[in-house]
Request: fold
Amino acid sequence: MLFKLIGRLPSVTEPARALASRAVPLVAFVSTLVCAADLRAQEPDWDSIEIRTIQVAEGLYMLMGRGGNIGLSVGEDGAFLVDDQYAPLTDKILAAIAAVTSEPVKFVLNTHWHGDHTGGNENLGQAGAMIVAHDNVRRRMNPEQVRDLVGRSDQAPADALPVVTFSDEITFHWNDERLHTFHVAHAHTDGDAIIWFANANAVHMGDTFFRGRYPFVDVESGGAIQGVIAAGCTSDVLLFSSPLTETVANTLSR
Ligand SMILES: [Zn+2]
Reply:
């Protein structure tokens, strides 16, 4: 889903303070699926799934297929993805990217470790993308941290693992954009990241925000409802949205 929101973000970070003071419309990427439920479901008919591309701002798009919506920044520096859905969709995702840029994917930033956000990591890592995520994303993708709840029963391939990890925040200066990425502790999981595209004034919230359904908190992966609320993913966002809130795209990805 894609909203324009009047809202605020977690209070301890630089973008949050900036956003709170600016009180300008935001565009939020939000997930349309509950990861665990999706992964427990029957194998999807991958051939029938189409990738839909929605422009958010100049050089910024949202890709909708199955699973968490993908953020795509394009420009002279190369394509930058926020999440990459499932491995069987990689070719379709790459085709959708190629429709808006001729540059290769240079970065993949995972908002958390669930398979509908990291499933394309191996393919894109092998193709040369640098994979970045919170420290706990890499830790959760190791065999010792496997949780049956989200259906991952074996070790993530080496090429799927993030090669750059961060603890609190990291900023990318890319495609004339500033992608301020900050961790929100113990929310949907213990490795969630929210990405603020400063110039576009858009925010990718990963699974810390579900529209139209009750939030999913993966307690086995370190999630906590208090963290979800603190991340501004449910009541806070809805509370601070206003009559200006509108649905830019309103299509389920399955
Ligand atoms: Zn998730």
User: Anything to note?
Assistant: The pocket of zinc ion is lined by residues 35, 112, 114, 188, 207 (CB under 6 Å). The chain has one domain: 2-41+49-216. The CA atoms of residues 31 and 207 lie 6 Å apart.
